[in-house]
Amino acid sequence: MKGTYLGEFQEIVLLAILILEDDAYGVRIQSEIQTELDRSISRGALHTALTRLEEKGFLQSIMGSASKERGGRRKRLYTVTNMGKVALKEAKALREQLWSKVPRVALNINYAI
Amino acid sequence: MSHMIKPPQLFAKWLEWVCAEEFYEELQGDLDEAFQENIVLYGVGKARSIYRKEVLLMMRPSVIKKLKGQFIYSNNTDMIRNYLKIAVRNMLSQKLYSFINIFGLAVGMAATILISLYVQHELSYDKYHDKADRIYRVSREWLNQDGESSLHLGHIAPPFAPLMENDFEGVIEQAVRLVSGYGPIMKIDDKQFEEDNFFFADADIFKVFSWKMLKGNRETALAEPNTIVLSKSAARRYFGDQDPIGQSLTFSNFGLTLEMKVTGIIEDTPNNSHFKYNMIASFLTYENVVGKEQLMQQFGSNNFATYILFPDQSKITKFTEGVPAFLDKHLGDSRHNEPASRTNRLHLMPLTDIHLHSHLDSEIEANGDIKYVYTYIVIALFILVIACINFMNLSTARSMKRAKEVGVRKVMGAFRSSLIRQFITESILLALVSAILAVVFVVSVLPWFNNFSGKQLSLMTVDPIFFTVLMLAVVVVVGLLAGSYPAFFLSSFTPVKVLKGSKLSSHKKINLRSILVVFQFFISICLIIGVGVIGDQIEYMKNKELGFEKDNMIVLPSNNEIHTNFQLIRDRLLKQPSIEDVTFSSRVPSGRLLDSQGGSAEVNGEMKTIDFRIADIHVDHSYLTTLDVTFLAGRNFAYELASDSAESFILNKAAIEGLGYSVVEESIGMKFNYGGRKGHIIGVVDDFHFESLHQSIAPIVFVITQGRARNVIVKVKPGAEKEAADYLKTEWTSLRPGSTFSYYTIGERFNDQYEAEEKLSELVSYFSWLTIFVAVLGLFGLSSFSIEQNLKEIGIRKVLGASVGNVMYMFTRRFVLLVLVGIIIAIPVSYYGMTEWLEEFPYKTTLQPLTFAIGGISALLFAIATVSYEIIKAALSNPVNTLMNE
Questions:
Q1: Using the beta-carbon criterion (under 8 Å), do B25 and A74 form an inter-chain contact?
Q2: Interface touch B58/A76, C-beta < 8 Å
Q3: Looking at beta carbons, which residues of chain B come within 8 Å of A48?
Q4: Structure confidence at residue B202 (pLDDT)
Q5: Does residue B26 belong to the interface with chain A, where contact is any CB pair within 8 Å?
Q6: Does A76 touch chain B (CB under 8 A)?
């Protein structure tokens, strides 16, 4: 199921959009990821991820309002579709399933070599 | 925030231009919003740089407009795309031919680029000076009674420059002198070097030449005595990273020691200068040593390179017109109350011409030669033409195979013009690939070429835009030329004929392709013969009997101390078993004969003024015996006769004949006056080659003068050179403390004179191999193609009983005939060309038939070898395989 596969970065983007609720557009998503994960991403890279997610049907977008700071240009607001939510949940479940199988001992951090 | 700061507009515009329509609004909006936030957070500067970075990171496929949408779809673009596709498929389907085609052309282009770089460098000499077009060098020519030139020096006497500045006020702006320091030893603390490129120069030198002054003042650096300006690398040699300004260097030469203060640093001599400097000391230093009054009298000391800067070009005629009167005024009446301007001339040569056009009897450094530049240009063009011919030939031959394609295209409605366009597109594409390959070749062989030519050429020095435009122009021209023949030829086919499969007339006896092959081989053979003749001439010059003993002669520098104690030193050296004889002289064979004076001689009972130039050599008693020169009459100088060292002269045969004696013996005992000495002729020696074989044998007089012998010549026992050199090294280090021990042998020095010819021969031989290579490559392509076309014919012939030999003969004959025609044309042309080249040498080899034979036969062998490979393969093949399918 190639179409529903979620990349790590794409997963983060989807989660950020869910966190931002009604205010999920480019700059907000970018700064959310930057502050929460302390990870610098470019707007261009984010754009690629958003387009890809929209192509897969995980995202929907509508054009929102304009403002003066934006030079009178409108923003594109994103919402996660049901399909997107399913994919997120699946990804989470998959991970938890894997976590549950890891033996406790293996998680002990070894400092000695 | 009523007034908003705008993001960097250039980047904003750029984004607007490249960003896909559907995303532009949101993206630009987001960037602007982030920008305004960043101004608050980090300030304007940081915000701008973030903005720029963001725009640059936008350059990704998901953001940028799809290129397709940019152009309006048209049939033309589709057709061009189709042409390119077919061209690439064609190239790939016939790898061998494409390779031969591209590789051959690339080699040709690479050779041409290389030679162009070289030529461009040769032509750029001294042009970097701001005032280059107004700077002229003055040279001095002496004429004999008949008005013929007897000597022409690139250096003139020291009083001329100041006198000119005085007499031609307003006509000339500056006149500056440069005189060599003759390799002084420069020293600071424990660092000392012998400086070859050391000059004394007038303070105004930097007003005339525009070398960059890195430290110090251009105007005043050489205004004081005992000041010196160093080149950047010389400064580093002595002072490392320290600041040299104000420090002192100790100069020692001519038995003189001076402290010189460093007052400036100039750039190293640019590679394209007709002379190179390491150090320039102030002329006043020199003047103080010699004495100003003295210097202004030395009209005979022509060692000063003199350059004039004119305020503008129009003043030059005024100067030349004034020169005769100027000479008469200052040189006075030389003899017979004749005006000095009758026997003396001053010539001007533009600074930028010196490197390629000046070949005087003295130059600061050996110059290049415009003739060699022309030769190289011609060779470059030859190679390019040969490569183009190959390209054309192969394209034409290959295109035969595509007659069907042409037929189909025509049936489908292609115009002739579009077919022509197709073939030209194809050949331009091939030429483009070759050009790229050629640049790769050039870059990879440049280090080797630089090493060989002693230049520092680089593609970097060429203006990249100019170079690209030039290369593209060459690609288009070659593509058009090479593509046009097949284009016009093929597009003329009638579709019915080619599609029916009737055979195209490729069997015409004389067609363009044959002519081109003949031409290629003609050029290659000419070059091979040229290499042969140049080699013959070098061999001839190296092996010719010179008339004296040149082997086992070691030449050493001398100084005052050696002069004064010469007899003692000589006796000491002679005790060494490895040393046969020792002598000293002002000039050493292999050098030039530049000194001469006037005089008179007794001929037929009366004193006659000598009206031609007799060069003088100042020697000691044993000079002529050491060199083992043949005496035709009279005797050598004798130690016992005190008069011999003051009033005896020995002349060579050329001088005696010049005086008018038909029998040399008659001249013995005749009165002879020369350069203020009065005496008699005591001996006549046979002519021998004192100078290199580029010069005819000059009249020479030998006189004994103690003080003027600058060189010590040691004759070594054969085979004992190393032993003698070791001994001489210890001896000379104690005699000339501080200087490095160096010597040369006369034999070596003679051979060094032919370096220019050897370089030429080496270069021409490389390029002639290259042309042969390219020509053979073309022939290989052509012959294998022709075999491929005629495989069936070979098969049928074999079935009908032809032997392998028969088949081979049939196919080889055609190509061999072409090469033979090439040979037949090449021989007379190269005979004429090489006779012209040899004209310049007074002593020349005869043109040997063998050289011509070698040129022709080697080309023929190469041709046969290449052609037969494919032919043998075809002739040996089983006819069944070729005739199997029809």
A1: yes
A2: no
A3: 60, 62-63
A4: 92
A5: yes
A6: yes
Beta-carbon contacts of residue B605 (< 8 Å; ≥ 6 apart): none
The full DSSP string for A57-72 is TSEEEEEEEE-TTTTT
Q: Quick check: A79 and A25 in contact, CB under 8 A? A: no
Of the candidates A45, A52, A75, which has its C-beta nearest B30's C-beta?
Answer: A75
In DSSP notation, A3-26 reads GG---HHHHHHHHHHHHHGGG-BH
Nearest to B156 by CA among B308, B337, B272: B308
- Please check whether residue B583 is in contact with residue B662, taking contact to mean a CB–CB distance below 8 angstroms: no
Q: What is the pLDDT of residues B286-338, one digit of tens each?
A: 888 888 888 888 887 788 999 999 998 888 888 999 888 888 888 865 455 66
Rounded distance, CA B618 to CA B610, Å?
19
What does the mean pLDDT of chain B come to? Answer: 84
- Of residues B230 and B100, more confidently modeled: B230
Beta strands in B514-646 (DSSP E): 553-557, 579-585, 599-603, 606-609, 615-619, 631-634
| pTM, 2 dp | 0.68
Quick one: pLDDT at residue A113? 57
B36/A contact by beta carbon, under 8 A: yes
Could you list the beta-strand ranges (E) of B540-643.
Answer: 553-557, 579-585, 599-603, 606-609, 615-619, 631-634
- pLDDT above 50 for A103: yes
Residue B455 reports pLDDT greater than 70 = yes
In terms of DSSP bridges, do strands B304-309 and B344-350 run parallel, antiparallel, or are they unpaired?
A: unpaired
Measured in angstroms, the CA of B73 and the nearest CA of chain A are apart by: 27
Length of chain A: 113
Distances (CA, A) of B480 to B426, B429, B515, B655: 10, 11, 20, 64
Count of CB contacts below 8 A, A vs B? 74
B40 and A CB contact within 8 Å: no
CB contact B27 to A (< 8 Å): yes
Question: Per the CB < 8 Å rule, is B34 touching A45?
Answer: no
Cross-chain residue pair B26–A26, CB shorter than 8 Å? yes
Whole-number Å distance between alpha carbons of B34 and B188: 65
Using the beta-carbon criterion (under 8 Å), do A27 and B58 form an inter-chain contact? no
Q: Are B724 and B716 in contact (CB under 8 A)?
A: yes
ipTM comes to 0.87
Note the pLDDT of residue B1.
44
